[in-house]
Write a structure and sequence with these properties.
Elements (H helix, E strand, L loop, with lengths): L12 H29 L5 H19 L4 E3 L3 E2 L2 E2 L13 E3 L9 H30 L5 H25 L2 H21 L3 H6 L4 H12 L3 H18 L6 H23 L2
Antiparallel strand pairs: 1-4, 2-3
Helix pairs in contact: 1-8, 1-9, 2-3, 2-9, 3-4, 3-9, 4-5, 8-9
Length: 266
């Protein structure tokens, strides 16, 4: 972002510092405003997450009707607010398949269940890759899609592992706390990682580049992470339409905001 010069043509260090501080503080607001403008200019950016939201609503019903146990999540339950954070653009499905329920399944049930879960991963990855790529104005290579799909799967498995460790007594609690702290650090300074992967970087180099680009903008990045988390948490609590709404609104908005920030930070 450009920095202001003093009126007499001689740059003043105090004014420059104030300009940089203002730019940093305004980055999140700028990204939100620019993302809204992009979405108004190109409504087709909504289409991928509309499709995924409807598809996952159908998957929720399949999961609830078969005999294989699921975790039926609720964003608002018993008056307690449960914050849901996603590193990649996404909403929140109403159900989650418990991997422990796959043990000792008959082969046909196992094939059906695993197939559905794979399709869920692929659909979320496709929506994210298409939306980010379109907003960036570039085509996406198969290699970039595979890397992005790896992010989607890896983050889900990481979240499941952290949940399991959290239930293993005192040691599990300590591990869970460490995982939460690590997640906050990675989600804030690694916020641009999904967009950089779509742009062609490997996941590891994308994370490193994201940390470098967002240095000095930690509060703005943290504000965006909190905004996405609260949006998913609140919208997913809408009866019957929570899954579709959270993917449509937050999934799309998250993806486009990433492209704005990526363009803004050198």
């Amino acid at each position: 972002m450009s920095e202001p010069d003093s009126s007499d043509g001689e740059p003043d260090s105090n004014d420059d510092a104030a300009g940089r501080s203002a730019s940093r503080d305004a980055l999140a607001r700028f990204a939100i405003g620019r993302a809204v403008g992009k979405l108004q200019h190109d409504p087709l950016l909504f289409v991928p997450f509309v499709i995924v939201g409807v598809w996952l609503t159908v998957v929720d019903q399949f999961r609830l009707r078969d005999r294989i146990p699921v975790d039926e999540s609720r964003a608002l339950e018993s008056g307690h607010l449960q914050i849901d954070v996603s590193w990649v653009p996404a909403g929140r499905p109403g159900t989650e398949r418990l991997f422990g329920s796959l043990v000792d399944l008959h082969p046909e049930y196992l094939l059906w269940t695993v197939g559905i879960e794979v399709l869920v991963y692929v659909s979320v990855a496709l929506a994210g890759v298409y939306t980010i790529g379109r907003a960036l104005g570039r085509s996406v290579t198969p290699r970039a899609f595979v890397a992005y799909l790896g992010l989607v799967v890896g983050i889900d498995l990481y979240a499941r592992a952290a949940f399991v460790f959290g239930g293993l007594g005192e040691i599990g609690i300590l591990v869970g706390i460490g995982a939460v702290l690590a997640t906050i650090v990675v989600f804030v300074w690694g916020l641009l990682t999904p967009a950089l992967v779509v742009a062609g970087r490997s996941p590891v180099s994308a994370l490193g580049e994201s940390v470098a680009r967002t240095r000095g903008h930690g509060w703005s990045m943290a504000g965006l992470v909190v905004l996405f988390a609260l949006g998913v948490t609140l919208l997913s609590g809408i009866p019957y339409a929570g899954t579709a709404t959270s993917f449509l609104v937050v999934g799309t908005f998250h993806a486009v905001v990433l492209t704005v920030v990526l363009d803004e930070l050198p």
